[in-house]
Amino acid sequence: MSLAGVEVTDSNVSQLGAVQAVRHGLSSAMKSLPASVYRRGANGAREALPDHPVTRLFAANPNARQTPAELVGELAWNVSYYRNSYCAILPPGDPRASEYYAVGGLEWLHPRRLAMVERGIDGRLYYTFNPPTTIVQGAQLKQTTYRDDELWHIRSNPLREDGLLGEPIFHSAKHVFARAIAVHEYGDIWFKNNGQSGGTLEHPGVFK
Fold first, then answer.
1. Contact (CB, 8 A) for 74 and 111
2. Tens digits of per-residue pLDDT, 112-164?
3. 132 - beta bridge partners?
4. Rounded to 5 degrees, what are φ and ψ at 89?
């Protein structure tokens, strides 16, 4: 809850036109860029490897249901807003992986599904995700935990105090968005009332 009396959530902040425009611009620019793997050479030289399995994976299908542009655009959309994006690293032969190359794949995970992240006694990070809200009727899906080497996690500054996750923009700029939401909500209510303000007028005597 903000000082303006507005509850700030990822859902109502994402409804702001400015937020939509910026996120769309960033994700559209990112998904139009080529992705490639390079070999580091001497004196800072680098050599593109167009036949590298990971390059071919991004050029064809990172998973069984997304194109490279769709995946990169979604990752940019998440990083610009949640300041975190996640992909499960799929092993070769996984049914969710690309069918074109036997190098596994990347399965996008929505940041909203993250339940918790914690450091284990082995020093590794463990990420636990809730099942998707849209599931097959009757399916009993449980939470899934990934070790840090089973997950591709992209973080953006600023980070939380523990340094494990990026701090979502609707947290770090809560009051900025609250003012914008308050203005929009006031305008919506004003138009709903046909531009009429409520209230009553009182007169101490007989009004003629």
1. no
2. 999 999 999 999 999 999 988 765 566 667 899 999 999 999 999 999 999 99
3. none
4. -85, 115
Contact 87, 152 (CB under 8 A): yes
Output the CA angle 130-134-139, nearest 5 degrees.
80
* Domain locations in the chain as residue ranges: 10-39+46-190
The half-sphere exposure of 143 on its side-chain side, counting CA atoms within 13 A, is 12
Residue for token pair 């992909």? 87
Task: Yes or no: say if 166 and 160 are a contact pair by the CB < 8 Å rule.
Answer: yes
Query: Shortest CA distance to 36 belongs to which of 23, 27, 46, 49?
Result: 49
Helix then strand then coil, in percent of the chain rounded to 5, is 35, 20, 45
Contact 102, 137 (CB under 8 A): no
pTM value is 0.82
